[in-house]
Write a structure and sequence with these properties.
single chain, mainly alpha, 2 domains, 3-stranded antiparallel beta sheet, two-stranded antiparallel sheet, 4 helices, 5 strands, elongated
């Protein structure tokens, strides 16, 4: 019964610890703090400090991954295979990026070559749907040059 009384007293004391705090300057010019402001003084309310941080709770999933001690041979093999698969995936992604980059460079080079051909001057021939060749006049060449410049801008970003 005595232990119950002590626990109850501690709980009540903890409740008053979280009470509102006030700050004021007394007649001697000293700053004072209390949970009850004195009458006749200008007391300012003070925010209580934040509670101490609690450590994060450990999930069951995290507890599995937090084994203590060395890995078993089977676990070592599993880790090795996992690292190997990740490395292979990274190498494939790097190769794909390189392939895409080289394709873009090739398309850009072709677009620049076509523009240079049109800007060189001279006759420009095209083939129609029936397989016959025809020569472009100056306005058609100008349109082709504009189109080729747009292609270069798109392909060579």
């Amino acid at each position: 019964m005595k232990a119950f009384g002590i626990c109850l007293g501690l709980l009540l004391a903890a409740g008053t610890a979280s009470a509102q705090m006030y700050r004021w300057v007394d007649k001697d010019g000293k700053v004072r703090y209390s949970d009850v402001p004195p009458t006749g003084t200008k007391a300012a309310s003070v925010k209580a400090p934040p509670p101490p941080a609690t450590p994060p709770a450990v999930d069951a999933k995290d507890a599995k991954g937090a084994k203590k001690g060395p890995l078993t041979p089977a676990e070592q093999e599993q880790e090795y295979r996992k690292r190997r698969a990740e490395a292979q995936k990274a190498a494939e992604e790097t190769a794909e990026e390189g392939r895409v980059k080289s394709e873009r460079a090739e398309v850009c080079a072709r677009a620049k070559e076509q523009l240079a051909t049109l800007q060189r001057g001279g006759r420009v021939a095209r083939t129609n749907a029936s397989g016959e060749q025809y020569i472009l006049d100056e306005s058609q060449v100008a349109r082709e040059v504009d189109r080729a410049q747009q292609n270069v801008q798109k392909a060579c970003k």
